[in-house]
Amino acid sequence: MTASSPVTEAYLETIYNLAMENQTVRAVDLASHFNVSRPTVTQTLRRLSEAGLVSQARPTGVTLTDRGRSETEALLRRHRLAERLLFDVLGMDFVAAHEQAHALEHWISPEVERKISELLRMPATCPHGNPIPGNGPAGVDYLRDQQGVRLADVEPGETVVVIAISEVVEDESALLRSLLDTGIVPGHRLVVEPAVDGEVAYRTASGRRHRLSRSLAVLIWVRSLSPESGQA
Questions:
Q1: What is the pLDDT of residues 101-159, one digit of tens each?
Q2: What is the four-CA torsion angle of 78, 219, 207, 229, rounded to 10 degrees?
Q3: Domain hosting residue 201, numbered range
Q4: What's the structural domain count of the chain?
Q5: Longest C-alpha distance within the chain, in Å?
Q6: How many CB atoms lie within 10 A of CB 177?
Q7: Does some domain include residue 114?
């Protein structure tokens, strides 16, 4: 496993994204996320630690070193800029853009990266609403600046605007497609309604009603709108 291997990239990005949402990252979380055994995770984390990319300690769990964070943000920047190019210029939806960006990101040189960012006028986020490192606040600072809360924590009757879809979800194309089809798109307004059968219920601007499991609703970041902002 080299510093640029797919396994390394997947671990670094997952650790970064979980930490962005203020979650303590544990080996057991990574084992569950990647559907591998604890010994496999332990071995991988040991290699990442030896490479100077992560550190482990109680009670902070697994964290990225300065070098690990820098390398991860460079990866995420290329990927998210590729998504924006595919979404804004080629007109792909945010599911297809995410899938295709995985291949495109490895061909983006620093010069091309800069040109894409300039062409798109320094976009602050990817199509899923997650921050593009280098173009504004990244990580936990972004969600704090946006006053982000989880959709699952919003009280019925509140109007919210979707900020971002958790990167923890992004590798599940079926889930992204489901969210797209039910109005969960950054910038869209929702009116939260009373829960139905334990699920989070909401109404979109078009008046259509939908429900999400709480386990999925916790991965949707929204911002509450004041009454004068208008209703969805």
A1: 988 988 899 999 999 999 999 999 999 999 999 998 887 888 889 999 999 999 999 99
A2: -80
A3: 149-229
A4: 3
A5: 54
A6: 14
A7: yes
